[in-house]
Design goal:
Blueprint: E1 3-7, E2 10-13, E3 18-25, E4 33-39, E5 46-51, E6 58-60, E7 68-73, E8 78-83, E9 92-99, E10 115-116, E11 120-125
Parallel strand pairs: 2-11
Antiparallel strand pairs: 1-3, 3-8, 4-5, 4-9, 5-6, 7-8, 9-10, 9-11
Length: 126
């Protein structure tokens, strides 16, 4: 059974940086494209970033492009999301997700991801 466990969320001030981590177990990590999504109160879950199985391809939603970096360490079965210059509108629960089928991690749709973590709260105060 695949398990994804996020960590690294918290309360920060606008302009601060944060690194989220997601540890994956129960499946060969390098066979999964990985994504980060977020959900703010009263809003739908939205795509934030994705990375291919080998880490060579990355994708971002426009609102975080240039401020965030998704990366992975296949030796540690962990995917990261490093966010800089955080804004109050980045406040949300952040989820990592695994796509078992994609090689390049191109999907931005929640329904294409096969396993999800429980989420970690990120709150950015102004």
């Amino acid at each position: 059974q695949v398990q994804l466990v996020e960590s690294g969320g918290g309360l920060v001030q606008a302009g601060d940086s944060l690194r989220l981590s997601c540890a994956v177990s129960g499946r060969t990590f390098s066979s999964c494209a990985m994504g980060w999504f977020r959900q703010a109160p009263g809003k739908e879950r939205e795509f934030v970033a994705a990375i291919s199985r080998a880490g060579g391809y990355t994708y971002y939603v426009d609102s975080v492009k240039g401020r965030s970096t998704i990366s992975r360490d296949n030796t540690k079965n962990t995917v990261y999301l490093h966010m800089n210059n955080l804004r109050p509108e980045d406040t949300a629960v952040y989820y990592c997700a695994a796509d078992f089928d994609s090689i390049y991690g191109t999907s931005r749709r929640t329904q294409d991801y096969d396993a999800w973590g429980q989420g970690t709260q990120v709150t950015v105060s102004s």
